[in-house]
Amino acid sequence: MVVLGHLSKAQAQELDDRRLGSRGREPESAPPLLFDREFIARMHGAVEEGHLSLRKAVGILGLTAEAFGELCAAYGLTLSYEV
C-alpha cells in the first residue's frame, strides 16, 4: 500500500500486523477445525455404517482415533463406540 501511495510509511508502521489477516476484525480465539463438517460427517457415516474402518479413516485424515473422536464431537457427531 505504501508503494502504491495509499499509505505513508508512518501510517504503515502504525498498523497492527495481527489484524492484517483477519480483515480488520479481532482474530478468532480458536483456530478453525482441520476439516469441514460435511466431509467429517461423510467419514463419520462411513465408519459408523461399517464401510470404512476407523483405522483406515484416521490414516486417510492423518489423525489419531482420539483426534477423530474429538473432531466428530466438535461437529456434534456421536460415535457408537469409545475411542
Describe the structure.
The chain has helices at residues 9-14, 37-48, 54-61, 65-74. The chain has 83 residues and is mainly alpha-helical. It has a domain at 37-74. The chain starts with 8 loop residues before the first helix and ends in a 9-residue tail after the last helix. 10% of the residues are buried. The model has no long low-confidence stretch (mean pLDDT 85).
Record the SSE blueprint.
Layout: H1 9-14, H2 37-48, H3 54-61, H4 65-74
In short:
The protein is mainly alpha-helical. It has helices spanning 9-14, 37-48, 54-61, 65-74.
Shape from CA axes? rod-shaped
Query: How many β-strand stretches?
Result: 0
String of helices and strands:
HHHH
Count of alpha/pi helices: 4
Helix content: 40-55%
Query: What is the terminal separation in angstroms?
Result: 50 Å
Low-confidence stretches: none
The structural class is: mainly alpha
Largest sheet: none
Q: What attributes does this structure have?
A:
single chain; 4 helices; 0% strand; rod-shaped
